[in-house]
Write a structure and sequence with these properties.
The protein is mainly α. The chain is built from 13 helices and three strands.
Length: 321
């Protein structure tokens, strides 16, 4: 099948629409003029009027007043060359419209720039099974743009040819990530990336995720079996847990307990040593302050190791989970 024609930018679409409208109006005016000109030059009625006019002119010539009437007749005589001009205007207008529309349709669309506070839509997900992105939108500060995957990480495809090289590439990426990211208890000195618009899953899967996370948050301790069952539901389960952790406001001791449980689940499911939940602190408020960015960091981790279903599967195979 031929590749789809990219949609034009809104400004170009409006400009093309204006050109089309103006061309249609000009073409309509030209065609109407051409019809009027051609209509004056043909037909039985015009023949009769012409014969009558000639008779009047002959009588006027005999009376010596033929010049004015002849002048009026010349003003009323049809100018057939104008019909050719009208047709030429119509053809030129149609050709111009076709050229402009083709140029607008074929204009390549620039990708959104990555910057602080600028939403970056995820690229169109491939149609192959297991390769739809977990998150559909990102907000990536310029300082972190090299550390955020907006497409499937390269080590995923590399693992099909060389698992050892893919593991090394993954380790190197984590090394760079740890060196650049403020891990708890360090406060974030600049905005962290944000991830939004989770990929929809079937209703029964979403219900199982919600029930599993609700039971996890209410439990006094992490149940490894329940955690494994929840992780088996896929990247959306991990991303939902990370987003719930990021949404906590840490306004009461119960929020700290919920954050601890969600962190334990994510650590158990992924095996990632970072980020860590910082327990040091004389009061629950101090613990809350030290772990305030934990949810944002875990969401980032999930995007990197579970960017798609295939990414999550390959990651678990590489890490022996």
């Amino acid at each position: 099948l031929p590749p789809p024609v990219p949609e034009a930018a809104p400004g170009l679409q409006r400009a093309a629409q204006d050109v089309v409208w103006q061309a249609r109006r000009l073409a309509g005016d030209a065609a109407a003029g051409a019809r009027r000109v051609v209509g004056r030059g043909g037909g039985y009625d015009e023949y009769v009027r012409h014969r009558r006019q000639r008779a009047i002119e002959r009588e006027a010539a005999r009376a010596g007043v033929g010049a004015p009437l002849a002048s009026r007749r010349r003003r009323r005589r049809p100018h057939r060359p104008l019909s050719i001009v009208g047709i030429g205007v119509v053809v030129a207008a149609v050709a111009l419209v076709a050229l402009l529309v083709f140029q607008v349709r074929s204009q390549p669309q620039p990708l959104p720039a990555l910057g602080v506070g600028i939403p970056v839509p995820a690229p169109m997900a491939p149609t192959e099974s297991g390769r739809a992105a977990t998150f559909a939108a990102y907000r990536v500060p310029d300082d972190y743009r090299q550390l955020v995957s907006v497409t499937e990480p390269s080590w995923v495809a590399q693992a099909e040819q060389d698992a050892r090289a893919a593991n090394a590439a993954l380790d190197e990426r984590w090394r760079r990530w740890r060196a650049a990211v403020p891990l708890p208890p360090q406060p974030a000195s600049r905005p962290l990336p944000e991830f939004d618009r989770l990929r929809p899953v079937p209703a029964d899967t979403q219900r199982a995720i919600d029930l599993g996370l609700a039971a996890l948050e209410e439990a006094e301790a992490l149940d490894p079996v329940a955690a494994d069952e929840l992780a088996a539901l896929g990247p959306v389960a991990l991303a939902t847990a990370a987003q719930r952790l990021a949404a906590l406001r840490f306004e009461r001791p119960a929020d700290v307990a919920t954050a601890r449980r969600l962190h334990q689940f994510l650590h158990h499911a992924t095996g990632c040593p970072d980020p860590e939940f910082v327990e040091g602190g004389a009061t629950w408020r101090e613990v809350a302050r030290q772990n305030r960015n934990l949810g944002a960091l875990w969401t980032w981790v999930v995007n990197e190791i579970a960017h798609t279903d295939r990414t999550w599967r390959v990651y678990r195979e590489l890490r022996g989970r």
